[in-house]
């Protein structure tokens, strides 16, 4: 891991407070080189790097290129440079530039898509539409860049999960149906409201009603029932009541069966108190 940027270029998503009060900053190239030299002293044969920061891929093509080529000066065996990105960060880059970045080793973008439903995206202020998702991911497919997507259950609020799931599956089915590589993972999170977010304040003022826990699982079942992707579904972060993973569509029936089993055997109260106990989205 190496710090490429800090903070988020956007900072406007209503459910997020991760980088509040922190300005976006690119690590100056001399600091970046010092860190690479240190990594080299411990791991001279490192093959994979992860650039930290909310969205290092927001850097311009030129800045990404400079840093990716600098990695080669220190870690000659490094084959893959992964990082977080937003759909917004792909937009200014052409397919040709993306292809070149891929050739320089940039591969494995973790994208917090959260939803593919226009109403939900606009409500939480993600700054892009379902059409943007389809268009920008198609560019990554064309350039051969591997990516991982996040979907967040409960984000649309009580009574809206089914609409969110159906429209998201429709969006995702357009990106690369049964494409062998992408999205490499579909990560599932579930909305957890923290006091310093706008959505929490809206909930306090009765302007947003969080979805029930069982409703969220039903939302996920609908998403999976309608999805035509070849990917790995990973609902194993702390925001999920019970961890669950599986290959899709191969294990579709098993995954949906497990979700139904959780709905049938766990009480809403038990699931609610689990969510209320979460103080952060860290691993523990
Ligand atoms: S969810 Fe991601 S893009 Fe949105 S404010 Fe938080 S870090 Fe920034």
Automatic annotation (TrEMBL):
Pfam families: Radical_SAM. Keywords: Iron, Iron-sulfur, Metal-binding, S-adenosyl-L-methionine. It comes from the Bacteria. GO terms for molecular function: catalytic activity; iron-sulfur cluster binding; metal ion binding. SMART domains: Elp3 (SM00729). Residues 1-230 form the Radical SAM core domain. Gene3D superfamilies: tm_1862 like domain (3.80.30.20). Its cofactor is [4Fe-4S] cluster. This is Radical SAM protein.
């Amino acid at each position: 891991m190496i710090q490429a940027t800090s903070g988020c270029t956007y900072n406007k998503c209503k459910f997020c407070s991760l980088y509040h009060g922190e300005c976006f900053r690119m690590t100056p190239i001399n600091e970046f080189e010092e860190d690479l030299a240190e990594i080299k002293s411990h791991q001279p044969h490192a093959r994979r790097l992860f650039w930290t920061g909310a969205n290092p891929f927001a850097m311009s093509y030129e800045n990404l290129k400079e840093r990716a080529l600098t990695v080669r000066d220190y870690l000659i065996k490094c084959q893959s440079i992964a990082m977080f990105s937003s759909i917004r960060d792909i937009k200014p880059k052409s397919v040709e530039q993306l292809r070149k970045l891929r050739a320089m080793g940039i591969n494995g973008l973790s994208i917090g898509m959260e939803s593919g439903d226009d109403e939900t995206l606009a409500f939480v202020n993600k700054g892009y539409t379902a059409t943007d998702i389809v268009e920008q991911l198609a560019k990554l497919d064309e350039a051969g860049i591997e990516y991982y997507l996040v979907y967040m259950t409960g984000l649309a609020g009580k009574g809206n999960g089914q609409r969110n799931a159906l429209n998201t599956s429709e969006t995702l089915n357009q990106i690369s149906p049964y494409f062998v590589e992408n999205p490499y993972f579909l990560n599932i999170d579930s909305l957890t409201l923290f006091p310093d977010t706008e959505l929490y304040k809206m909930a306090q003022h009765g302007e947003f009603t969080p979805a029930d826990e069982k409703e969220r699982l039903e939302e996920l079942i609908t998403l999976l029932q309608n999805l035509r992707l070849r990917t790995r579904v990973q609902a194993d972060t702390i925001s999920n009541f019970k961890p669950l993973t599986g290959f899709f569509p191969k294990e579709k029936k098993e995954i949906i069966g497990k979700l139904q089993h959780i709905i049938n055997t766990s009480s809403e109260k038990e699931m609610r108190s689990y969510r209320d106990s979460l103080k952060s989205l860290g691993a523990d």
